[in-house]
Amino acid sequence: VQLQASGGGLVQAGGSLRLSCAASGRSFNSFALGWFRQAPGKQREFVAAINWSGDSTYYADSVKGRFTISRDNAKSTVYLQMNSLKPEDTAVYYCAATAYNSPGYYLKSNYYGYWGQGTLVTVSS
Q: Could you tell me where the beta strands, DSSP code E, fall in the chain?
């Protein structure tokens, strides 16, 4: 499956952005999907994940209550709605797909076999 992320940009602290990730290729709804981010000089970290059907979601503690992951299987697209953005949310955001269907795998980037190219989110203070 090929993934294409979009929606990044520059926003002031407290603002909102919605990232999108469109998929093509293999059956989209057979994959769980995740968002990860990597800030300059830091390791890539888990942000959010959603299972294949969309009825279970998982979040990093740092974004819980502010970010919402969702998917539209008819459009083969996953979204990340980001509200109340903080300067520490500044990073390149990546969408990823995994064929594993157990929540224990969703938080770990090495279990994702497909990655988008990343989209930059910059939050100014």
A: 2-6, 9-12, 17-24, 32-38, 45-50, 57-59, 67-72, 77-82, 91-98, 114-115, 119-124
